[in-house]
UniProtKB/TrEMBL annotation:
Residues 23-106 form the HPt domain. Keywords: Two-component regulatory system. Pfam families: Hpt. One of its GO terms (biological process) is phosphorelay signal transduction system. The keyword Translocase does not apply. This is Hpt domain-containing protein.
Amino acid sequence: MATLVDPDFRARLDALGERYGATVPGAMEAISTAVSHCRNEDADLDSLEKLHALLHGIAGSAGTFGFKVLGAEARRLEQELRPLLGKRPADAPEWPALAARIAQYLDWAARDPKAPEFDL
């Protein structure tokens, strides 16, 4: 049986990647806002859940559209965040250090979210 080849596949995937790239600044802003909220003393049990969901979204989609490292780093941070779920950020001693690592990720992503490596 012959394999069907779509001659426009690469061009369509590249176009989808460009559209995805246009959403990255907004997604990073949403993560930044969630981190800021988690730093507030009134952050509740759902605060880290919301941040986790945002990181999970990037981790699951970025690589598909050519943002491999952006997605891999989001996955790493998401996994670091997982043990804190169900806690208030103020009650998680690990939270400040993780918040700092997420801030580094956001700074890196602002420079070049399609960079081939995560460098600080």
